[in-house]
Predict the structure.
Amino acid sequence: MSVAESKAKSPKQSSRNKASPAQAIAPEVLKSILDATPIEYVNIKNLVISDLNARTIPYSKESVRGLAASIAAIGLLQNLVVHDMPDGKSGVACGGRRTTALELLLEDNLIQPDDVVPVKRVSREIAAAASHAENEQRVAMHPAEQITSFRTLADMGKTASQIGDELGFGSRHVQRMLKLAALAPSLLKLLAEDKLDMEQCQALCLESDQDRQVAVYENLMATYSCASAHLLKRQITESEIAVTDARFGFIGREAYELAGGVVREDLFSAQEGDGTVDRLLVDTLMAEKLEKIALEIQQKEGWAWAMGRPSRINRYGTNDNDYLLLPVPDAVYNPDDSHRLDELTDQLNALDEDSDEAYAVLSEMNLIEHAAEVRGWTDALKSNAGVVASFMEGELYVQRGVCRKADLPEDDAENEDKKASGSVTYVSQPDAAEGISVPLLTKMSSERTLAVQAALMQQPEKAVALMVWRMCCSVFSGCSPQRHPFGISVNVSHYSLTREAPSGNEGLAYTALMTEQARLEELLPEGWRKDFTTFFSLKGDLLMSLMAYCTACSVDGVQTRDMGHTSRSPLDDLEKAIGFHLRDWWQPTKVGYFSRLTHSQIVAAMNDAGSVGAAKDAEKMKKGDAAEHAEFWLKDTRWVPAWLQGPQSDAVKETASVDTETDADNTILAA
């Protein structure tokens, strides 16, 4: 039986208009009549809601079920007012919602039809007047009354869940009202007098000290002549941070509470478990944890000193006066590292990237790469440098190779001061990738890196020349951080590059690289991994191909954004040197590129490519259609986004402009 249909039908013996004269009965007369009417008990099965009942709108399902739960728990506390019906039943004029709740209990077999309830039987005239008076005067229980009532039951030992079950409220609502019971008595009085609203009380309850509650309220009233919930909350929590703050997550709730910290729970927040914590204590604990982490790394790796600090050491600004960041050396891989990374890469390619097995393989790869990076710092470098642990963008940030200028010899310090001389003015260049999201920047620079690798692989003479140049940089600069006798390492990042590049493992560049790798592996002598002398027998052409391929695979041009500015691509000069063009290896498609832009960026790209008319059409399209439109119009051009290529000469720009010219009337062209 639905609540909306729960009012029983009764024969229409008279209209409501006929009973209207009774509604004019004076309240004091009506009260005396009802007081004098004796209580009698009627079987529930004989009750029916009268057509005289003033309530004509169906009761809400929630209110009826809540009342039914209350009646089931503690019984019917108030009698019904009924009158005789022509069919012998008792028509309920006052208590329709209670009757509906009883019917629900009957339906659920929680009571029986023969159970009796208390009623007062009156005439139809009195019944109509009583129904009108009851529903006209009835108002919902005031929040202050709920607080007092719930607190009384809680003092009797009942839980929020039990109170809610008995009175038809959710346990969360009961918990919130019990929280408000902690308000200072003077503030509760203001609530009862409607001089405070619920939002203000909820804000004040963030403070458990009643004296401070009153002080905060009175101070705001004296200062602003008002005390909005927003101002109250800000005043109470001004020295606190949210539990969702990354700093609190870094130290952990357990450590915070062990240090005597108290979490100020906000039961009134829509977010479960919301609250605030002491900012000063969190910052203190974070500093202690960062210091501990830095000391552990120092002891494990052998650095000269260690320091924990809230922010990282920057190359520029105030830190430049005190610290010097050493260049990060090349990673040093053990003989078995490369072989193991190859095995793990093969395993990873065969797994679902979201599986637990893939996560475990990736974790092992990260550990190998991290160990190789740490191994690159030699004892000589670590003897005068330290490690700094800080907190950046919500995560632990470790910097190795930090020198304190005060520890450097005077000559070195003077040279560094000259380098940092303020007589040189640096003018920052416009950011070519402004407006491009960091994820897209990483993806497309990964795509670009793979393409440059493939292009360089096809020019072995230049690749070998670059490798020799790189070796000379290490030999003639006097820096040789590697421990094995050869002092050369190649960092191959194909896994991370294909993971980020939109074309993934199926791109033209990566396919070309893997095809060449498979060809070269077939030509390598048996047992070469364990015996470097096997390479003495290789012919010059094969050695040249191997050197070219390995050099190409070492190229790393992935970009990021630091301090709001995009890093300059290290590929710019290399691309110019080898005559590289990205469109030889990559096509801007809807899925791989345009769908990752905003609608305005798609239109701007088409204008930049010279497709002005098509760009105007794209302005009127939805983003998905515009992305597909852009792919169609630019597929036969040589256009490349400006932020994915190095500076071009005027001649190159003019050629590109001619290549991408498009008639403005795209409707005619499309036809």
In short: The first strand starts at residue 39 and ends at 43.
